[in-house]
Amino acid sequence: MTNQTNSLAVALFSEILVVDQLARHNVAKALPKGMELSHFSVLNHLAHAAEERSPAQLAKTFHLTRGAMTNTLGKLEWAGWVHIRPDWEDARRKMVSISPAGLAARDAALAAMTPIIANMVDQVGVDKIRSVIPVLRELRLQLSEND
Q: 53: which strand partners?
């Protein structure tokens, strides 16, 4: 790798990290009271999932430790946003699904954050956003292969 490639790589990832931090901050402010971005992420994933997930599967999906996922799921269960039940085939495992209240909370969060994201897209420009998505997707795939 050349110095130019290294400088480009550092500049790219510096921008990605700052955009991530700012996006999380702006979206988190719009979330319903008591909901954290990690809660929304799990609820959103479960809302799109066709079936229940185990805590281990969720931890792997979000690149978290099982302990961190267990902590998040405990908060979601306390809020009434997920159902956690024993796995009927293996009593040592649990299975997680989104509750109707969780689906409503996720929908409320999505409704609150969508205008913020849409405004950003309008400010930057639809064509620019559309052109950068394939590049970001390719970067994500490269990073996931190295994981």
A: 96
The total of structural domains in the chain comes to 1
pTM (2 decimals)? Answer: 0.85
- For 130, the domain range is 3-145
Q: Give the model confidence (pLDDT) of 85-111 as tens digits.
A: 999 988 889 999 999 999 999 999 999
Residue range 31-44, pLDDT digits in tens: 998 999 999 999 99
Say if CB 77 and CB 71 are below 8 A apart.
Answer: no
CATH number for the domain harbouring residue 137 = 1.10.10.10
pLDDT at 3: 86
How many angstroms separate the Cα of 79 from the Cα of each of 33, 60, 105, 120, 133? 11, 23, 10, 31, 34
